[in-house]
Design a protein that fits this description.
With 242 residues, the chain is an alpha/beta fold. The chain contains nine helices and eight strands. It folds into two domains: 164 residues, Nucleoside phosphorylase domain (Rossmann fold, 3-Layer(aba) Sandwich); 63 residues, no CATH class. Strands 1, 2, 3, 4, 5, 6, 7 and 8 form an eight-stranded mixed sheet that branches. Strand 1, helix 1 and strand 2 form a beta-alpha-beta unit. Helix 2 packs parallel to helix 3.
């Protein structure tokens, strides 16, 4: 199943007819709640289409990195298909921004989507297509947003088709199977470790993480003494990889 997510009704209104289930999530953290209610299953696919703030008004981008401005967390959708569409990183802001630097894209929900979806799906099964609607001040009306996205329908249909056709079985697992037990991780923290594992594969940093874990074992910090120590190790891994 392909789920097509939009934050706004004016975005969704032009996407009828694209194969998949179309869902309007609302903006910001509300998207997390709506997506949490979906019955996502492994090998489902999620496409988020919407507007963002940036410098090149009217241009569409595939997103290869999502950064939460609120938490500092980074997520890495893995774009395995060739589309010819330019890729850019995207920052999710907790509120409306009024100034955007060159080379930046900003929205209000992508990191919340990643937070939920990456607990279930592979990085290659989540795709973001964002179209620049403003630079922080020149906001569009709902009708203008709909008309702008309508002009991008060929690209959106192409992305949806490529996602449905792409059955490449990329592997994102390389950590020892008993590592979560050694770290004394809760189930929530195990999902965080899975996010880290996926990021390292996508960014080519597997060896760095394995060296860090080896050093922790040499220092006697692994296996962890308790869940608190496991949390500290997980936080240190986050800090190292940033």
């Amino acid at each position: 199943m392909l789920y097509i997510l939009t934050a706004l009704k004016c975005e969704a209104s032009v996407l009828n007819g694209i194969p998949g289930e179309l869902i309007t999530t609302g903006v910001g953290a509300r998207a997390r709640d709506i997506i949490g209610e979906l019955d996502l299953k492994p090998y489902d696919k999620v496409l988020n289409v919407g507007i963002c703030a940036g410098k090149n008004k009217g241009k569409g981008y595939l997103i290869n990195q999502v950064i939460s401005q609120e938490t500092g967390r980074r997520y890495y959708p893995d774009i395995l298909f060739e589309s010819g569409i330019e890729e850019m990183p995207l920052t999710t802001s907790p509120g409306i921004v009024h100034e955007v630097d060159e080379g930046m894209l900003i929205d209000m929900e992508a990191s919340f989507i990643c937070e939920i979806v990456f607990k279930i799906l592979r990085p290659s099964d989540l795709t973001f297509y964002k179209v620049v609607s403003d630079s922080g001040t020149d906001f569009m009306s709902a009708g203008e947003v709909s008309e702008m996205l309508r002009q991008h329908l060929p690209e959106i249909r192409k992305i949806a088709r490529l996602m449905l056709e792409n059955n490449e079985a990329a592997s994102y697992e390389f950590l020892p199977e008993d590592l979560a037990e050694k770290m004394r991780l809760t189930w929530y923290m195990r999902n965080e470790l899975k996010d880290i594992e996926h990021y390292c594969v996508v960014s080519g940093r597997q060896e760095e993480l394995m060296r860090l874990l080896g050093k922790m074992e040499e220092e006697g910090r692994l296996p962890a003494a308790d869940k608190k120590a496991g949390r500290e190790i997980l936080n240190e891994i986050y800090s190292y990889l940033r």
